[in-house]
Fold this protein.
Amino acid sequence: MPAALKRVLVADDEENIRLLLGAVLRKEGYQVSVVGSAQEALRALAEQSFDVLLSDIRMPGCSGLELLDQVQAKHPNVVVVMMSAFGNVDTALEAMKRGAYDYIAKPFKPDEVTLLLKKAEERERLKLENQRLRLDLEKVKYGGLGKMVARSAGMEEIFKTIRKIAEYKTTILIQGESGTGKELVARAIHEQSPRANQAFVPVNCGAIPENLLESELFGHVKGAFTDASRDKKGLFAEADGGSLFLDEIGELPVNLQVKLLRALQEEEIRRVGDTRGSRIDVRVIAATVRDLAADVQAGRFREDLYYRLNVLPLVIPPLRERLEDVPPLVEHFIARNNTRLGLEIKGISPEALKLLMDFSWPGNVRELENTIEHAMVLSESDEIGVEGLPAKVRESKDRIRMTLLSGELSIKKTTRIIEEELIRRALKQTGGNRTNASKILEISHRALLYKIKEYGITDL
Ligand SMILES: Nc1ncnc2c1ncn2[C@@H]1O[C@H](COP(=O)(O)OP(=O)(O)OP(=O)(O)O)[C@@H](O)[C@H]1O
Ligand SMILES: [Mg+2]
């Protein structure tokens, strides 16, 4: 997919040059705007997105070099090419030192300009490709697994456990809030296991009507009930030799909980209406958003099945407890959507990323994924900016409030979040002065230094 540098802004005080470049580039299929001064160029760049700025080095008022500096600060993704009059090579070289892509000496032939733009395009394409490769590397560096990326210690630990347990047939119970990646984890376990070449069969226990679920899971024989006009293989049998992913296991009706337990213990299933059982070799991976232990307490879930499933519990932390996963996830989603949707977004602005890291993500990774896709599709420049983020993200800088709203009841976790936030605020207020900050916080200087280290506060 070529990185098209289609939108070109020409800034030159000479009308001839403006007319010439406008005509030549339009003929080549570029969208061209022309302006006569640096000020007008800045205004145009603020109003709409351009890929390339072709600017004269010397213009009345603000010089091309000053324009270059400003464009680099405000629109870092715009490729700047300077045009210089004969004998002005020094300034042109200075421009390149300051970050211009190239320069072109006047008078020039039209071909020279189009060739230069093609070269710049090639460089941009390489940059995007590089971005994708870096992403693959990130996965290696941060220990991503399967289709998952993460760098938090919590997820690292999960990846480690997955690698360790994948080869055994042990039943696994994955717990985590909605959108934390339970299904991806289940697939990763399967893919890392010796069963990888066999079927991975996902079943959403909450989505199949109760009266059909038994025959869906275990199959039935012809005539078992009114609609059973033929034998039917169940999902357990489909997964024979492979893995069966029982999603939303907490929704499984009690009578089926009994049957599932028997199937797990005896490694045998019985189709509805069948008198004999048949042996199966299936690894069961279950997942739930519910607190199954509490369901057991409340008598909604069978204790024996709970213990049978929970041999190896995997609890995926919510995204708000591993915000350091946000940057690699964002980069991952940008690169993936660029490929999937044919977009050419190069990144995210630091301010926008900061907001994403301040948000509490009640919908976890899925919500982040949707937010990025939305911002990319609607973006008018090649970078996701603050304006592309939904209002709830832009307005929720207050982590304390979000933590309290999230329904978190752990005093320990909540206190830590509040403590970290107060320290950040105090440091901000005192311009990073730790002695003064410790006074405002009413803790000792030593305690503050310790906590700064503990919370990894670096950006004061
Ligand atoms: N670590 C990750 N790296 C990349 N993508 C992820 C990661 N975690 C989750 N996702 C993406 O987020 C979305 C939600 O993940 P998944 O469906 O596995 O979550 P879930 O816990 O099963 O959610 P639910 O409880 O709502 O079914 C998916 O599109 C998935 O690809
Ligand atoms: Mg799921």
Summary: Residues 147-150, 176, 178-184, 289, 329, 332, 365-366, 369 surround adenosine-5'-triphosphate (ligand 1) (CB under 6 Å).
